Amino acid sequence: MSLSKSEYNKSAYFYDEIMNSFKMDFSLYEDLIEIVKPQSILELGCGMGRLFPIFMKEAKEITGIDLSDELIDKGEKYFKLNNVNNAKIEFINTDMCSFKMNKKYDLIVFALSVLKHLKTDRDRLEALKNAKSHLNQEGFIVIDHTPFLYSSQSTDWIDVKNSLVVDWLPESIVIDGYQWKKSIEGDKDILLWRYNDSEKTHFEVKFTTYRYDIDNLIQHLSELDLNHELILTEWGVNGLSNKGKRFIGLASYPDNKYSPKHDLLERVIKRNERLWSDQDLYLENKGVA
Q1: β-bridge partners, 143
Q2: Is the pTM of this model over 0.70?
Q3: Do residues 26 and 50 make contact, with C-beta atoms less than 8 angstroms apart?
Q4: Among residues 231, 185, 230, which one has the least CA distance to residue 208?
Q5: What's the pLDDT tens digit per position in 236-254?
Q6: Which tens digit of pLDDT belongs to each residue from 78-102?
Q7: Is 287 left (phi over 0), alpha (psi -120 to 50) or beta?
Q8: Which has the closest alpha carbon to 144: 116, 125, 182, 105?
Q9: Contact criterion met (CB below 8 Å) for 57 and 33
Q10: Pairing of strands 178-185, 188-196
Q11: pLDDT per residue over 105-164, tens digit each?
């Protein structure tokens, strides 16, 4: 995991400008938290706490775990000044496979395909097992996952403003000059970002992740004796179709018979947000492909 840590530390300032502003999954967590009303939330691979302001609307205790000490430091400093609801917020600098706490949570979050940052199936299974051991009996693990980031094939450099990412960011974020590129090398699913003008490249960062198929994820949940329920195949109303390439769903103990799926889908339909997390589907929807 040292490769991933060094890459993320190098790119911590980039999170401030772009990635910490990603909003494509906000409505998912806003609706889920309003329905389930968890009083305690644990997020694995939390970064600087991008989702924490949403969590704070209901939860009184929020714990975030991340491998990057720089991102943890930024998150701690931000929420020290911006904890308007006085929630108990704790950041822990460790990996999601080995952490141990004497606490259990109402909701545990794996957002934005964070399990892809683990290299082996053994690590992913261990992370899911660890999550289960910290889950209250009536709680839920929410997993938002796709096997490939942005595209399922390698690409050349793509301008952010002409890609799916443009719909993920608030209009206030300046994206001129930013580009992304995909490189798939065996099981490695590598995402590169850079800032480039007509003269030179001023900034470039690489995120190395690893392919983790949805069938493998479901198998791992079954091995851990966790029930799972697919909610959506994509963010927003596009996730009601079978075209989406994501697993957005919930896992829970078998004795937990409550399902928030119906209420959540009602809200998805009412919001009518249309987003894509796959570049080919985005272009097809825009009539470009």
Answers
A1: 110, 249
A2: yes
A3: no
A4: 185
A5: 999 999 999 999 999 999 9
A6: 999 998 788 999 999 999 999 999 9
A7: left
A8: 116
A9: yes
A10: antiparallel
A11: 999 999 999 999 999 999 999 999 999 999 999 999 999 999 999 999 999 999 999 999
Compute CA distances 192 → 33, 115, 158, 164, whole Å: 32, 18, 10, 15
- Taking the C-alpha atoms of residue 283 and residue 263, their distance in angstroms, rounded to an integer, is 31
Give the per-residue SS3 of the chain. Answer: CHHHHHHHHHCHHHHHHCHHHCCCCHHHHHHHHHHHCCCEEEEECCCCCCCHHHHCCCCCEEEEEECCHHHHHHHHHHHHHCCCCCCEEEEEECCCCCCCCCCCEEEEEECCCHHHHCCCHHHHHHHHHHHHHCEEEEEEEEEEECCCCECCCCCCCEEHHHCHHHHCCCCCCCCCCEEEEEEEECCEEEEEEEEECCCCEEEEEEEEEECCCHHHHHHHHHHCCCEEEEEECCCEHHHHCCCCCCEEEEEECCCCCCCCHHHHHHHHHHHCCECCCEHHHHHHHCCCC
Cα–Cα distance measured from residue 146 to residue 280, given in angstroms and rounded to the nearest whole number: 14
Cα torsion 20, 24, 30, 36 to 10°: value is -110
Q: Where are the domains of the chain?
A: 17-146+210-284, 154-206
Q: Give me the residue label for tokens 């998912």.
A: 28
CA distances from 108 to 95, 104, 262 (A): 15, 9, 20
Query: Which amino acid is located at 56 in the chain?
Result: M
HSE (side-chain half, CA atoms, 13 Å) at 155:
21
**Is CATH 3.40.50.150 what the domain over 17-146+210-284 is classified as, yes or no?**
yes
192 forms bridges with which residues in the sheet?
A: 181, 206
| Pairing relationship of beta strands 105-110 and 227-232 according to DSSP bridges | unpaired
How big is the chain, counted in residues? 289
